[in-house]
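Entry 12.
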Amino acid sequence: MNDASQAARTQGSNKKLDTFPKLLLENARRYGDKHAAREKEFGIWQPWTWRQLAKDVRELACGLGSLGFQRGDKLAIIGDNRPGLYGAMCAVQSLGGVPVPMYQDSVAEELQFVMDHAEARFAIAEDQEQVDKLLEIKERCPKLQTIIYEDPRGMRHYNQAFIFSSKDVQIKGRELDTKRPDFFESEVAKGKGSDVSIILYTSGTTGRPKGVMLTHDNVRITAKNGIERDGLRQDEEVLAYLPMAWVGDHIFSYGQAYVAGFCVSCPESGETVMQDLREIGPTYFFAPPRVYENLLTTVMIRMEDASALKRALFHYFMRVAKGVGILLLDGRPVSPGKRLLYALGSLLVYGPLKNTLGLSRIRIAYTAGEAIGPDIFDFYRSLGVNVKQLYGQTESSVFITMQPNGEIKPDTVGTPAPQVEIKIAENGEVLYRSPGVFHSYYKNPEATSETKTEDGWVHTGDAGFFDQDGHLKIIDRAKDVGKLIDGTMFAPKYLENKLKFFPQIKEAVAYGNGRDYVGAFINIDLEAVGSWAEKHHIPYASYQELATRKEVIDLIQGCVEKVNADLAADENLSGSQIRRFLVLHKELDADDGELTRTRKVRRGFVADRYAKLVEALYSSTDKCAVETEVTFEDGRTGKIKAEVELRDLDLAVPVARAS
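Predicted 3D structure (tokens):
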């Protein structure tokens, strides 16, 4: 075990360091001038040392105390990833309060539900845009008393007595600290590992979001176990770009950063993430499947525009990588000739490609949140990027299973994480028990008792099984796995992920449970298909117009047929080939309720909203007129009309297997 991992074990087992404010003070003492955080502002990376971060947290905590913040109070946090907002989490925890991060792209109604349900008396917002949202809902959130903002741009004329800049709060904090120099340390000392450290709201895939209460021990011990399992070090580099309200960001960008003491960098904006990723060159990286899919789409688009020679080199060496790269990454034997050919590919293709994507320095990369397509997974590993899958939930403080190095399978999510017990119920549902198991759902004892048993076992709602090597394989949501009328297993997420491997397909929704065959809705990727259309001189003026072009539907049909050919080779899934599909006339959108804020499809909502199109999939019609209400960025609504084409497919012949 390396020194940092041993240090993490020492910190994690020391009862005096059982909360994150205590860990912060220890890191400030131990690491001092080493970087704790960075933020890119005006094109320049601005660093915070552990000592500086501790000073800022102290001042903000004292300032909140001077404004009347009490132990047990909630502070809502809304904005992009910013060191100041992460610091606000620790400042609140220092006073025995609970931070409640919210999705920064939430509309006012969504914010209102979380603010009201969490009973937040205080809120800290990144900028004017987020302050305006809070002001819009303030009268409907009677508990909300104080609003604090980070970025002063545009805030000059906001003169309400309950609005403060974070700088002004810190000034108040310095004044209190001068008068009562023992205030901060005494408040921090009162904290215990069993105290609730954060409330994270679920994405609300099937209904209203639930507030998951996690304790310091939940997050800290789980973070420590992940660090030890993967040998993370104090010198890791991480880019924090995913929503702060998401449990994955909280564990990787806060929990593990505080336990291991590594530096977390925040991008300048959502639009600059890819550029910032290349500049930072993280060594430890986490991304949901959608990010890996989008990166692959970018690569494929560029290849389409490259010269014939470059395209030929790319495709040739990617074939080499597929046969060699994964074996090398797993430490398996490879002949000298193949090693030499792979090294040449690294010089000409893999190295430049990883550098372009910002993945050159990756030691460990993880993906989770939903299943990643096996082909996408293998693409990155063949390049030498150590991408691994983990399986987790908000209720587990992320980690349930992890893939050990050298035991990576594209269709499993690994073995139980340290101190995690897993069992499979008779109906195939996965249950687990661990130190990360959540305290409870906030103000929802019924949901808590439905999810967590008295002896600590948690129902995941996912169906899965262990393979012969002890690796867990998740099939789908237990409630979503079904059967066709003939008894063939129907696993919609598996089919959707295979479709989304193609850069032309951004989203897919499969149907088939209790039906004669499988049908699918498909969203095209506007960037990928738009680039293809321009190259083929196909005019279009909007997503809707492009999605209804015959040439585009032909293109998508080719992708679906390739998926069917793959399914035909699997004796368990050959009967679930896609027989009919349509290309949706609009993109599925979180603002329209079709996706969660973490970009997961709300399957039931989509089925209800497009019931007419679902029924059309199971009819003989080849056209279906539809009218859909949409929400624009400014909150206005409107309607779009379209005539959607439905396509029938000839099913691929199952591959005969030797008896």
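Annotation: The first strand starts at residue 35 and ends at 41. Residues 289-477 form a domain with the Rossmann fold fold (CATH 3.40.50.12780).
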